[in-house]
Write a structure and sequence with these properties.
Blueprint (H helix, E strand, L loop, with lengths): L2 H30 L5 H22 L2 H7 L5 H33 L5 H7 L2 H6 L2 H9 L3 H24 L4 H22 L10 H25 L2 H8 L2 H35 L4 H38 L6 H12 L2 H13 L3 H22 L3 H28 L3 H28 L5 H22 L3 H14 L1
Helix pairs in contact: 1-8, 1-12, 2-9, 2-10, 2-12, 3-7, 3-10, 4-10, 5-9, 8-9, 10-16, 11-12, 12-13, 12-14, 12-15, 13-14, 13-15, 13-18, 13-19, 13-20, 14-17, 15-17, 16-17, 18-19
């Protein structure tokens, strides 16, 4: 199979995997919003910080080192496996003793046991690192999708059942633990690799020297992505945090799907052609154009449809979350572009630069938050939009040095797509005014149909390059 067909196949299976996971999760999202309180979700938003740390360990650091290593052996895999288990246990131990101080800082009645139990997901997630790296390196995304099916079904079912019987926040805790548990079982079944009781110091040093910078970068990024889950309950209330958490989670469905596809597929793909600078530069440009072509209209379309979408999925009690969701859509629109730029650094082994960039961007984020500190939750969320835009400038500045694709060139190429997406946004707003008296589900349906037709029409009229590139890819793949 050619590199292009491998990429298209990888995108298809990764997309299918994400749709399956997010689809079932969205169903539980709809049901749980009616079974649990805002306070429950305010607590859950704090749990997410610890849950995401576990996910970060699986998807970052040492696993990335395995993916970029040419012809890794059992010595590599086993050494990384035991390193990852040890680091997860160490991290969990540190969190276990730090949680009381975190709760004290927030100053709200948060059960310490809830946070400690939910953090066990960090250890559970660490058992799947090598299996996921092997399947990703081999671009076996169909196997990854199949392995995710049991956890995608069982975890939401357990959460909804416990919530129905009145277990409150514990239903979310158990749900967060069953997901990595069953995913681990499935991945061990899907992968033929098994760890040996081997630990090679030279291999550990090799992978650690590359992976620890990426892991630190990812952990730093995870903490800052979830920083509002700590700030909002501290400054406002658990109810406000619950409203923000639901808006952020809903925003995360499309964002995570796009970012996962871009990150998982492009990293092994670009790694395979890293020795051909012209080919990797051309591939990068096409990936960037297509990613923005999809993410910009999707996120702007969701922002335009937010009033009916939030009321349908969450109910009228979450009306205050509508502007939260709209602002978050703007902030996350560029996330896939960030992921592409950062993948270039990983492909060329510049984990040192990767970490440096994360530190710079987090400093900028702190500055943005400080500027918005006195403007309430809305102001804080607008600071995330500013931080995302500034992060784009930082990421593109450094990736330019590796692939000769400057920030200016990237921004210029983004303009036609962004203008078309903004026009589509206007079309949806106009249609929404005429369908305001319809049932919520019909409002959503008409908005999306109008947006899709309008965007495709604008793409044809303005002859957008990624539009014709996608048509060509589809045509070639079928043949």
């Amino acid at each position: 199979m050619s590199t292009r067909k491998k990429a298209v196949s990888g995108i298809f299976w990764t997309f299918t995997d994400a749709i399956l996971l997010k689809g079932l999760s969205l169903l539980s999202f709809y049901i749980l919003a009616r079974l649990l309180t805002k306070e429950d979700y305010g607590l859950y938003a704090i749990l997410i910080v610890f849950i995401n740390i576990g996910t970060t360990i699986v998807e970052s650091g040492l696993s990335n080192s395995l993916i970029r290593t040419t012809n890794p052996t059992q010595l590599d895999y086993s050494t990384v496996f035991w390193m990852n288990i040890f680091s997860a246990i160490l991290l969990y131990t540190g969190l276990y003793f730090a949680i009381p101080s975190i709760v004290s800082y927030i100053g709200k009645p948060i059960p310490i046991d809830v946070l400690r139990v939910s953090s066990i997901s960090i250890i559970l997630s660490s058992f799947t690192t090598v299996q996921m790296a092997i399947l990703t390196k081999e671009m076996q995304f169909q196997k990854l999708m199949i392995a995710n099916i049991p956890s995608a079904i069982i975890s939401p079912a357990v959460g909804v059942t416990l919530a129905y019987y009145g277990f409150g926040i514990w239903s979310l805790v158990v749900m967060s633990l069953t997901a990595p548990f069953f995913q681990s079982i499935s991945l061990w079944t899907a992968s033929l690799w098994r760890p040996a009781f081997i630990f090679v110091k030279s291999k550990a040093k090799y992978h650690f020297s590359f992976g620890y910078k990426l892991l630190l970068s990812a952990l730093l990024d995870t903490i800052f992505k979830n920083i509002y889950n700590i700030i909002i309950p501290k400054r406002f209330s658990l109810v406000s945090n619950g409203e923000y958490e639901r808006a952020n989670t809903l925003n995360g469905y499309p964002t995570n799907i796009l970012t996962t596809i871009v990150s998982k597929v492009t990293y092994p793909l670009l790694t395979n052609i890293k020795d051909n600078k012209e080919e990797i530069s051309n591939a990068y440009k096409q990936i960037l154009r297509v990613s923005l072509y999809i993410s910009a209209p999707l996120m702007l379309g969701l922002a335009a449809t937010a009033p009916s979408l939030i009321l349908f999925l969450l109910g009228a009690q979450y009306a205050e979350a509508i502007p939260y969701f709209q602002i978050l859509c703007l902030a996350s629109m560029l996330y896939p572009i960030h992921s592409i730029n950062l993948n270039v650094l990983k492909v060329y082994g510049r984990s040192d630069l990767f970490l440096k960039l994360e530190v710079i961007k987090k400093i900028l984020t702190v500055i943005c938050i400080a500027c918005a500190w006195n403007y309430g939750i809305i102001g804080l969320l607008w600071s995330s939009v500013a931080a995302s835009a500034l992060s784009l400038l930082v990421n593109t500045y450094y990736s330019e040095k590796l692939i000769d694709y400057s920030t200016k060139k990237q921004l210029i190429e983004m303009i036609p797509t962004l203008l078309a997406a903004l026009c589509m946004y206007g079309i949806i707003i106009l249609v929404a005014q005429y369908t305001a008296s319809f049932a919520l589900i019909l409002q959503i349906l008409f908005n999306f149909i109008a947006g899709i037709i309008g965007y495709i029409g604008l793409s044809y009229i303005f002859k957008l390059t990624p539009f014709y590139f996608l048509l060509k890819i589809i045509k070639n793949y079928r043949s």
